[in-house]
């Protein structure tokens, strides 16, 4: 293994441990509870059915039993002894936008690493899927800190074979590969089309968390006149007039509409959703996510 890559892994681990300690301290002080509750309560196995009651999560409705005409029934679950957490990380070329060391894929790797370390310390099984428009890396879930280190090492050294994105294909692979109900943390910029149907299926089958990574360079274009713009995924160069106000406004509007659509979809299907910009401190955003999960778990 090259020395520079070893150094890169060590530096990343040092940074991630600092973030993890910061997060764990904040979680324990603010929630006055066990950090394990962040991932706990969703690793469940089927136990029985009971009549539907007001306030029950519609995702727990057993449609097969309810279809028999004797009322609406929901599934009841008992907690499994071991929780499985799967990270689905987008490593396509569109993730390379950002400043050196702070690109979308850099931040995605950091968030993935922090949560992998946290999950491993709570004795969860953790696995990884890296994707572009094809499977770039698949690590089966295992317990232990060595598994977290293996995940971090693999995402640091990974050199994607493809530049393109296919979210639908990535989600389809996860649906076919992850049989046991798990916490799935999907990290991407979600710049793609036609993936909502598969995303809905993933949310129905698993406890889904969406972390959307963005960078201000995607919307805040300087007025430079007519310039060439390289599409990193297709490697095609397009000429655009950055001084034309309507062009910049259209980009901002399109970006905002995409994010709002994803946020609304997440609310509708009980998916935990947060959006992180490459230039902001993402620890408070993760804490907000943990608070939401902790609150929803206590209400179950």
What does this molecule look like?
By secondary structure, the protein is of the alpha/beta class. The protein has two domains: 3-39 and 80-299, Rossmann fold (3-Layer(aba) Sandwich), CATH 3.40.50.410; 44-79, no CATH class. The protein has eight helices and twelve strands. Strands 7-6-3-8-9-12 form a six-stranded mixed β-sheet, sandwiched between helices. Helix 1 (3-31) crosses helix 8. The mean pLDDT is 81.
Quick overview of this protein structure:
By secondary structure, the protein is α/β, with parallel strands linked by helices.
Question: What's the layout of helices and strands?
Answer:
Elements: H1 3-31, E1 44-51, H2 63-66, E2 73-79, E3 84-90, E4 98-99, E5 102-103, H3 104-121, E6 125-131, E7 135-142, H4 145-157, H5 167-177, E8 183-188, H6 196-205, E9 207-214, E10 226-231, E11 236-241, H7 245-268, E12 272-277, H8 283-299
Parallel strand pairs: 3-6, 3-8, 8-9, 9-12
Antiparallel strand pairs: 1-2, 4-5, 6-7, 10-11
Number of helices: 8
**CATH architecture grouping of the largest domain:** 3-Layer(aba) Sandwich
Poorly predicted tracts of residues: none
Task: Determine the CATH topology of the largest domain.
Answer: Rossmann fold
Structural class: alpha/beta
User: Which CATH class of the largest domain?
Assistant: Alpha Beta
Helix-strand string:
HEHEEEEHEEHHEHEEEHEH
Our measurement of the CA-to-CA distance between the termini, rounded to an integer number of angstroms, reads 47 Å
Global geometry: globular
- Give the overall pLDDT as a whole number: 81
Q: How many strands in all? A: 12
The main pleated sheet reads as:
6 strands, mixed
Helix percent reads 40-55%
């Amino acid at each position: 293994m090259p020395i520079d890559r070893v150094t890169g892994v060590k530096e990343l681990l040092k940074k991630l441990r600092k973030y993890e300690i910061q997060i764990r301290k904040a979680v324990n002080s603010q929630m006055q509870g066990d950090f394990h509750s962040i991932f706990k309560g969703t690793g469940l196995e089927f136990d029985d059915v009971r009549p539907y009651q007001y306030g029950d999560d519609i995702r727990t409705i057993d449609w097969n039993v309810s279809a028999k005409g004797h009322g609406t029934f929901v599934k009841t679950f008992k907690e499994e002894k071991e929780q499985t957490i799967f990270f689905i990380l987008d490593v396509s070329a569109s993730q390379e936008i950002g400043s050196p060391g702070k690109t979308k894929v850099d931040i995605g790797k950091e968030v993935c690493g922090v949560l992998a370390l946290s999950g491993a310390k709570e004795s969860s099984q953790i696995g990884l899927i890296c994707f572009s428009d094809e499977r770039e890396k698949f690590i089966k879930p295992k317990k232990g800190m060595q598994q977290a280190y293996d995940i971090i090492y693999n995402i640091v050294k990974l050199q994607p074979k493809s530049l393109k994105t296919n979210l639908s294909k990535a989600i389809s692979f996860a649906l076919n590969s992850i049989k046991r109900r798990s916490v799935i943390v999907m990290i991407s910029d979600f710049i793609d089309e036609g993936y909502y149907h598969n995303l809905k299926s993933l949310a129905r089958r698993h406890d889904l968390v969406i972390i959307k990574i963005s960078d201000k360079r995607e919307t805040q274009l300087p007025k430079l006149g007519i310039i060439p713009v390289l599409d990193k995924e297709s490697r095609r160069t397009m000429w655009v007039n950055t001084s034309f106000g309507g062009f910049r406004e259209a980009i901002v509007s399109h970006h905002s509409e995409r994010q709002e659509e994803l946020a609304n979809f997440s609310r509708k299907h009980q998916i935990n959703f947060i959006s992180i910009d490459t230039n902001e401190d993402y620890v408070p955003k993760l804490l907000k996510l943990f608070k939401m999960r902790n609150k929803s778990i206590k209400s179950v």
